[in-house]
Amino acid sequence: MVNWFWKRAPQRRTLKLRSRGEASGTTRVDFAELAPELNRFLGQAAYLQLGYFETLSRGIRGTQELARKEALSRAAGAALDKHRGIVQVIAERGDDPTQVMLPFRENLDEFRRKTIGERQEETLLAVYLTAGMLDDFYLALAGSYGETGERVAAILRQDDRGGEIVSIIQETIESDDEWRSLLSMWGRRLVGDTLLVCRDALRPGRLVADDQRIEPVYTELMGAHARRMDAMGLAS
What InterPro entries does this protein's entry cite (predicted)? Predict the structure, then answer.
């Protein structure tokens, strides 16, 4: 298990992780002040959505099947809409969105490279699962930023057209049990790298050893991940 924690805890607040599609059953965890400064939060959130748009757009070019092209175009458009929404928030604050995102480009591009599979189906599964985990996490952090956080949360809650990807994955695994086994294993491998992105989203310099405080966050994120896997018919 990864250890990420904070050096001081003079104040506590409540961070809520929401499982996608669920109205209740969330876990509330008290933290020290972990939330990064606002532009760090906005820059990472905006660049992540841009990365998903780029990956899905490449998927469109990489398939000859018209129905799949259309499905991926809808999912890519949803990611681009989220990116544009967060960029607008940044611009309205008087900042240059490119400069706000730039410090996170290298690390997030590396994350994207790690989650691109040898086959398109692996990459699509990675987009769906990692976007789900990270949207949940950034929704939790958004509660730290008042009205601006509320705007970003509303953007992140927009329909990501993930159902388009789920349909492709389900058709794939129903056609061949070897695909089911392969994608189940791939889905499990994504968790560690995604949790590291969550770690990097937090305020630098606040990490101390405190497993009991952070453990519920991991538990909830991985629980939501397992539910997404199970809903697609993949063993988690």
Answer: Ferritin-like, Ferritin_actino
